[in-house]
Amino acid sequence: MRRKRWTPERQRTLREADWIVGWLRQNGPASTREITKAMQQEGLELRAHVLNKALRKSPFIVHCGFQKVDGHDLSQWDFDRSLREEDE
C-alpha cells in the first residue's frame, strides 16, 4: 500500500512553519528567543525541526545579525522585505 504524501504530522509541521513566517512578517525583526516565546503564547509546541524549516529553509526569511542578551548572542531573523519590492 502506498503511503500518503501529506501525513497529519507533515501538515502540522508546514502549518507551524508558515505561522512563524507570518509572525515574522508582522513582528520582525525578532530574536530566536522572541519567536519561541510567541510560539508558546500561541500554544504551539516548540520543535527544533519546525524552527529550522521556517528560519533556515524558508526563502522568505533572512538572518540579519546577532543581538547580545544576557551575555549570549541570539540570532536575529526577519521577513525578506526585498521580495515585496520586487513584486511591485
Per DSSP E runs of 2 or more residues, the count of β-strands stands at 3
Rg measurement, Å: 15 Å
CATH level-1 class = Mainly Alpha
Strand proportion, as a percent range, falls in 15-25%
User: Considering DSSP H and I runs of 4 or more, what fraction of the residues is helical?
Assistant: 40-55%
Query: Cα distance, first to last residue?
Result: 47 Å
Structural class: alpha+beta
The H-level CATH homologous superfamily, spelled out, is Winged helix-like DNA-binding domain superfamily/Winged helix DNA-binding domain
- Across the major sheet, the strand order is 1-3-2
CATH architecture: Orthogonal Bundle
Named CATH topology:
Arc Repressor Mutant, subunit A
Order of helices and strands: HEHHEEH
Name the descriptors.
alpha+beta; three-stranded antiparallel β-sheet; 4 helices; about 20% strand; single chain; globular; about 90 residues; Arc Repressor Mutant, subunit A
Can you give me a brief rundown of this structure?
The chain has 88 residues and is α+β, with helices and mostly antiparallel strands. 51% of the residues lie in helices and 22% in strands.
